[in-house]
UniProtKB/TrEMBL annotation:
It comes from Haloarcula salina. InterPro entries: Enolase-like_C_sf, Enolase-like_N, Enolase_C-like, Mandel_Rmase/mucon_lact_enz_CS, Mandelate_racemase_C, OSB_synthase_MenC1, OSBS_N. It holds the Pfam family MenC_N. GO terms for molecular function: magnesium ion binding; O-succinylbenzoate synthase activity. SUPFAM superfamilies: Enolase C-terminal domain-like, Enolase N-terminal domain-like. This is o-succinylbenzoate synthase.
Length: 348
């Protein structure tokens, strides 16, 4: 196993109610398996995953474990609850090698019957004043996005309503709007926001309440605005979320869930329970974005996913083979992830 550190600045930082993301530091993982070199990416996001330091030491331990116990030893050394980003990095490299060895794009390694050329995606719009928010959604709509997710919760509910009204006034009813409060509201604020957002045609709000408040989320359901849970899934709490009927939608971030395989399994489990999966990145470099894209591509009729985050990075690890056209991302049909490990550079 080979591990290389990278650090990439964002050209367009993402402002959210739980802070602004302005750079991404992580590790490229390479692993030789079945005659192929697979590539993976571990890009921790503190608050969501382990720290960069804990990710690095977990990858060190996994590398040790791999030298005696092979890929099984490495996977056993990487706990999805403790070090999800490190596990994502290694698991992605292993899956990339497996899919290459089997001669299929990664999404077909999850479901060999499937063919999927494109995945619908949402534009992601950060917190900013009303005119800027409306401008960002308008530009996204003009470039073909039919679904836009707007960050809320940094301001008062009344101010967020003003922002979303400015958006509706600017783009009309043709664009599906979602909001993401990143856990910022009290139950009372959330109740008020759901009432007012209904008139603005907001499809769902991601994480209206703090992660632990599953009862509160369950009580917000049933109206025109859906409840999507994201932070509530951190630390392997998916079972609790499903059991308490707390969500209409699960936001599945492979980096937070310990890898693409875990995310795919949870997506299928959600579907069986009548809960819609939406796959998103944690604003990652190209390797992890592709891994998330393949997870989404393996889900039939997936709802627009939060994968269009690549243009926020000022630099990347390799050229991105997927492009967003008319609100859809092209799925690479080459074997594995669709980027060759030799093209991935951490020294650029
Ligand atoms: O879902 C999207 O549109 C993009 C991803 C995103 O918003 C995000 C990115 C990094 C960390 C947290 C989040 C989030 O969904 O809360
Ligand atoms: Mg979210």
């Amino acid at each position: 196993m080979n591990v290389d550190r990278f650090s990439l600045p964002l050209s367009r930082p993402l402002a959210t109610a739980s802070g602004t993301i302005d750079e991404r530091t992580g590790f490229v993982v390479r692993y030789d398996h079945r005659g192929e070199t697979g590539v993976g990416e571990a890009t921790p996001l503190p608050g969501w995953t382990e720290s960069v330091a804990d990710c690095e030491s977990a990858l060190d331990r996994a590398s040790e474990a791999a030298s005696t116990g092979g890929h099984t030893g490495a996977l056993l050394a990487l706990d999805a609850g403790e070090v999800p980003a490190a596990r994502h990095g290694f698991a992605t490299a292993l899956l990339d090698a497996d899919a290459r060895a089997d001669g299929v794009p990664l999404y077909r390694w999850f479901d060999s019957e499937r063919r999927c050329e494109r995945v619908p995606v949402n534009a992601t719009v950060g917190d900013s004043p009303p005119a800027e928010t409306a401008g960002a959604v308008e530009r996204a709509a003009e470039s073909g996005f039919e679904c836009c997710k707007v960050k809320v919760g940094s301001r008062s509910v009344a101010d967020d309503v003003t922002r979303l009204r400015a958006v509706r006034d600017r783009v009309g009813d043709g664009v599906t709007l979602r909001a993401d409060a990143n856990g910022a509201w009290s139950r009372e604020e959330a109740r008020r926001a759901f009432e007012l957002f209904a008139d603005l045609g907001v499809a769902y709000v991601e994480q209206p309440l703090p992660a632990d408040d599953l009862t509160g989320h369950a009580a917000l359901r049933g109206g025109p605005v859906g409840v999507a849970l994201d932070e509530s899934l951190v630390d392997r709490r998916v079972d609790a979320v499903l059991k308490t009927d707390a969500a209409d939608v699960l936001i599945l971030k492979p980096m937070v869930l310990g890898g693409p395989g875990n995310a795919h399994t949870l997506a299928m489990r959600a579907r069986e329970r009548g809960v819609e999966p939406v796959v998103t990145t944690t604003v990652d470099a190209v390797v992890a974005r592709l891994a998330a894209l393949h997870v989404a591509a393996a889900i039939p009729n997936v709802s627009p996913c939060g994968l269009a985050t690549g243009d926020r990075l000022a630099a990347d690890l390799a050229a991105d083979p997927s492009r967003v056209v008319d609100g859809e991302m092209a799925v690479p049909q080459d074997t594995g992830l669709g980027v060759d490990s030799s093209e991935v550079r951490t020294d650029a």
